[in-house]
Amino acid sequence: MKKRAVYLPFLPLEQFLTTPLERECLSPRLLFPVYSIIVAALLMLAILGCSPPAVPAEWIAPQARPTGPALPKTRMAFDSDRTGNFELFLMNLNGNKVTQLTNNPVYDSWSPRLSPDRRTVLFHRTPAGVHDLDAAKTSIWLVATDGSDPVQIRPVGLDGWTLQGHAEWSPNGQQLVLFGGSRINPQIQLTDALGQGAQALTNCPGTNLDPAFHPNGRMITFVGCPRSICTESNYEIYTMPINKPSNRPSRKDAATRITTDKFRDHDPMWSPDGRRLAWLTQLKTGLPGVWDVRIGAADGTGAKHLFDDTGVTSRPEFARDGTIFVHRIPPQGNRFGIYRIGKDGTPVEVTAGQPGNNEYPAP
């Protein structure tokens, strides 16, 4: 599966640890001599090949977001490689009336997110052929819903970050939340609606990824690690109130841990009414492995699998009526398609018969 291939490019380290380090966000203890060698190696890796590139000299911070006509609630955005590289498209929720939104073969454009007023699309770009495989090459953009005025709001390297991604709107459209920072220690960050003025919401060792706002705008959910040094199998789901940057939590015990298993978790998302929480889980490792969405109560209890098969299901999204959209490769399939799961639990592929891979629905 094309998923999170570069966030933690190190060999598993649990074998070197003599204690489980289960205290949330606890700074690593220097367990000499072995553990100090590990720390030194990580620091060397951070220095060699992990420095962010310079922001392009011609880049100018945007002054206003591009806006177009409000997209009807019957329409959604998505990305597809049907033209060669990945571009953004719009279509009806049932898959009809597809129109192309972006057209720049230099890039892969992917993961569109509609602003709350549905007049602007937030999205991600990487060099063509990279798609969602490398957060170190990801820039963040805005475009109007009619395809006009695409503008880069966060070039690679801005604010000294090596990685960035998973940008999401706040419910009032005035802020963005995303992950950003170093390769070995990205944090959850808050910016204004133009991606500027970044302020860290977390200050935790380890990996912090995939944030999203609660519908009330006062909480976030995100992916973190219960250990200071962790591998992808340690990724768990957390929720946390948004504190002022001057009072940002330095321990994840300021947050609530939702998942407590050994599965790799990603992409948590609340339902529009805040009563349900859905997230992505890798149930079987390998390439691509088995991935499914789990959906439970707002605190994660009672979670059930969405498909419960051997397919590759990715990133859940809720429509305003509470129905769920995902993109997935079904068992024995060979491409991603977009599926709508009705309130009765029946999945329907809305991109059936359409060419290419079709991904990241944004209803």
Annotation keywords:
363 residues; mainly beta; four-stranded antiparallel sheet; 24 strands; disordered N terminus
Question: What characterizes the major β-sheet?
Answer: 4 strands, antiparallel
Rounded average pLDDT: 87
How large is the share of residues in beta strands? 35-45%
Put simply, the count of helices is 1
By secondary-structure content and strand pairing, the structural class works out as mainly beta
Query: What spatial order of strands do you see in the largest sheet?
Result: 3-2-1-24
Q: Shape, please? A: globular
Distance from first to last alpha carbon: 23 Å
- The oligomeric status of these chains comes to single chain
| Helix proportion | under 10%
Strand segment tally: 24
Order of helices and strands: HEEEEEEEEEEEEEEEEEEEEEEEE
Low-confidence stretches: 1-35
Gyration radius over CA? 20 Å
